[in-house]
Each structure stands twice: as C-alpha cells, then as structure tokens.
Amino acid sequence: MPEASLDREQFLRSPQRTVSATNPAVQARWGAAAGDTAAATPLISESAAAAAAALQVEILGSVMVEDQLLIEGIWRDVEGRVVEIDYSHPAGGTWFGGAATVAMLVTRARVDLNAGTTLFQGLIRL
C-alpha cells in the first residue's frame, strides 16, 4: 500500500473545522425549536466553509418547492448537499423567468450508468 505524503498525513490528522450560521428570521419565529443542520465538506479554508454555511441557512430559511433535473455525468454522494443548478436557456434568459442559477438541496440522486446521467431530486427556494 502506498504511503501518504507528510502534508497529506498532517491534513488528515488535523482537527475537524466547523463554522456556524444562523437565520435571524427563523430564530425569531421558532426560537429554540429552530432546526439545526450540519454538513461535512472537504472545504479547507474557513471563508469557504462560512460561505457554504450561509448558503445552507439561505436555503433552509426559505419557502421550498420540489424539483428534479436530469444532468449529464455521474454524480455520487450528493444527497444532503446544496448544489448550484444552472437554469439558463441556450437562447438566452432562463427557462422559467427566474434566476439563472438556483441552489438545490439534493434529497435524492439516481445514477444511470448506461446513459451516463444523474437525476437530481431536491428542494429549491422560490
């Protein structure tokens, strides 16, 4: 078995970094009953982790609708993650007149190895 480099070994032994973010509107409405979520990501910098936490707060503090999207490529281990979906129309504008890029909380991802596609099912905010 190959050995890990010293830098890689130090990275793997470093303590897990965490950041937190809150949504004041959700806290005001629900108080202690407000939900708490956590996600482990491979983000190294604290600023990237803070941006990911802010995106999660934005997603979970909004009115959500279900959506599904067939994407080219094999995407594994995306359930529970927030991904950016591009809704741009090839002729310009967007498919539904909304934002060109929408954050989706992926609840299910079905991989079709024969077609080389992944069906994302998840929640997007209005």
Provide an overview of this structure.
By secondary structure, the protein is of the alpha+beta class. It folds into 2 domains: 1-61, no CATH class; 63-126, no CATH class. It has 3 helices and 4 strands; from the N terminus they run αααββββ. The chain has helices spanning 6-13, 24-30, 46-60, and strands spanning 64-72, 82-86, 101-112, 117-125. The chain has a 4-stranded antiparallel sheet. It starts with 5 loop residues before the first helix and ends with a strand.
Give the topology.
Layout (H helix, E strand, L loop, with lengths): L5 H8 L10 H7 L15 H15 L3 E9 L9 E5 L14 E12 L4 E9 L1
Antiparallel strand pairs: 1-4, 2-3, 3-4
Key features of this structure:
126 residues, alpha+beta, four-stranded antiparallel β-sheet, 4 strands
Q: Largest sheet, order of strands side by side? A: 1-4-3-2
User: What does the radius of gyration come to?
Assistant: 18 Å
Overall shape: globular
Q: Tell me what portion of residues adopts beta-strand conformation.
A: 25-35%
Mean of residue pLDDT values: 78
Query: Which series of helices and strands comes N to C?
Result: HHHEEEE
CA-CA gap between termini: 50 Å
Q: Provide the low-confidence segments as ranges.
A: none
Tell me about the biggest sheet? 4 strands, antiparallel
Summed up, the helix count is: 3
Strand elements, count: 4
Alpha-beta classification: alpha+beta
Integer tally of domains: 2
- Helix coverage percent of residues? 10-25%
